[in-house]
Amino acid sequence: MVVALAGDGDVETAQGILDAAGVTVPTGDLVNGVYDEAGNFYQMPEPVVSDPDNVMVEDDGAVEAEIAKGEEGEMDEEELERRREEKGKGVLKSGDLVKLRARLSDRGGPDVVIMLSKEQSVRVLIRKIQDEIGIPGKGKVRIAYLGKILKEGETLLAQGWREGHVVNALVFQ
């Protein structure tokens, strides 16, 4: 996360994370290693702290194009439904909807209220929050509940969330 923030030019936030973790970077370059508060040295492999150069970026319309070409036989129905839900295009049953209140970390204003199916993943919740508050393309949101960062691929209920409880939306810009 520190590398991504520094790469995006948000050096202050990256430094804040390092300070909070008690980590020092004496050379200013993570590849040369870091030290914790006890003085222990940690070597950071270059592939961990550099951007990959052999990764393809998937087009947002790739799933829709596959479906349009009739290739959906290769994907099972459950996989198609999961992908549609992630894109916010899944079919919701009104009986499954819950009202979820998310408290944003980047502002002191009112909480954001999102309607979400009990079966939808945290990834769908993140996308809905981003749409609701208008986060720019590089903005990132993580969801925390009871002090734990929730896994994006699982549902809220599977991770212990109870209806009526507030989740924390950690906004990084």
Give a brief rundown of this model:
It contains six helices and seven strands. The chain is of the alpha+beta class. The protein is globular and about 55 Å long.
Structure characterization notes:
With 173 residues, the chain is an alpha+beta fold. It has six helices and seven strands, in the order ααββαααββαβββ. It has helices at 2-7, 11-21, 46-49, 62-68, 77-86, 122-133, and strands spanning 34-35, 41-42, 97-104, 112-117, 140-145, 148-149, 166-172. Strands 4-3-7-5-6 form a five-stranded mixed sheet, covered by helices on one side. Strands 1-2 form a two-stranded antiparallel sheet. The longest helix has 12 residues, at 122-133. The chain is globular and about 55 Å long. The termini are close together. The model has no long low-confidence stretch (mean pLDDT 77).
